Amino acid sequence: MTTAVVALPRRPTRPIAFAVEVAAVVGRRLRHLYRTPARFIGVTLNPLVSMIVLGYLFKQSIIIPGGGSYQEYLFAGVAIQVGLAGVGPTAVAVATDMSRGLVDRLRSLPISRSAFLVGHTIADLLIGLLGLAVVTGFGVLIGWRTHASLLAVVAGFAVLAVFIYVMLWVGVLLGMSMKDAESVDSIAPLIVVVLPFLSSAFLAADNLPRWLAPVAAWNPLSTVTHVLRTLWGNPTSASSRWVTDHAGAVSLVSLGLLFAVACWVSVRRYRSTEA
């Protein structure tokens, strides 16, 4: 008597399974974008308006300390607006999925508890990079130019991609904390519009009121834009502050801490919601 041996399909290893789970969430998020392209418009609209208003209409009225082209100075600030503009849509998407019971359906599936959040951020990163490409093309049209090597220019855009991804995790944290799309919609515009004006994104910190200048100088947006302008060979606002002289290190530490806190708290809240 012989015994038939049935070969069972091999279960994917944990890293491969996690990648498949994340890819499924990414595909779902991108399909939603295809059906609602207004989300992509929201990511690019504020940066484009800033370039038109500040970089074209008011360019003769704004002087950079130390001289130089204001369009070239402005572009770094406009570019980080792409990252800030992604906070709201990501937060709304996460809050909507939470309120509609998607987490309850995922609870019964043998998938990683963080794949849902990672998938959201990767999909929105792709959207953000596409929006950045549109904003960059428009920036070239209004006069933005680089004066650095190709490697430095690529490094600048790599820093910008990291910044966008960190901001997306801030959006995840906001969506997990509020769980209400209407509440998120009321706060998101403040992040996109107000925060850049409290930094050197659009104006040099020394041109701001004396009490606000130190706040703007230590704003992480100021250090990131300073790094971008330096890498791209664009004009930078002359400053003798310690934070400006060590903008690279300050940006690395601030973004690293923000990323770690946002990821840890978001995943923790997600798991506690399932409990």
Contiguous low-pLDDT stretches (5 residues minimum) are 1-11
Radius of gyration: 21 Å
- Helicity range of the residues? over 70%
Number of distinct helices: 12
- Biggest β-sheet strands, sense, barrel: none
Mean of all residue-level pLDDT scores: 83
Rounded to the nearest angstrom, the distance between the terminal CA atoms is 51 Å
Total tally of structural domains: 1
Estimate what percentage of residues fall within beta strands.
under 5%
Structural class: mainly alpha
Order of helices and strands: HHHHHHHHHHHH
Shape category: elongated
User: How many E strands?
Assistant: 0
Main location: membrane
GO molecular function, one term: ABC-type transporter activity
Membrane topology: Multi-pass membrane protein
Protein name: Transport permease protein
At a glance:
The protein is mainly alpha-helical and 275 residues long. The protein has helices at 14-35, 38-57, 70-85, 87-99, 102-107, 115-142, 150-178, 181-197, 213-218, 220-232, 242-245, 247-274.
List the topology elements:
Elements: H1 14-35, H2 38-57, H3 70-85, H4 87-99, H5 102-107, H6 115-142, H7 150-178, H8 181-197, H9 213-218, H10 220-232, H11 242-245, H12 247-274
What does this structure look like?
The structure is a single chain. The chain has one domain (36-274). The protein is built from twelve helices and no strands. It has helices spanning 14-35, 38-57, 70-85, 87-99, 102-107, 115-142, 150-178, 181-197, 213-218, 220-232, 242-245, 247-274. Helix content is 73%, strand content 0%. The longest helix is centred in the middle third of the chain and has 29 residues, at 150-178.
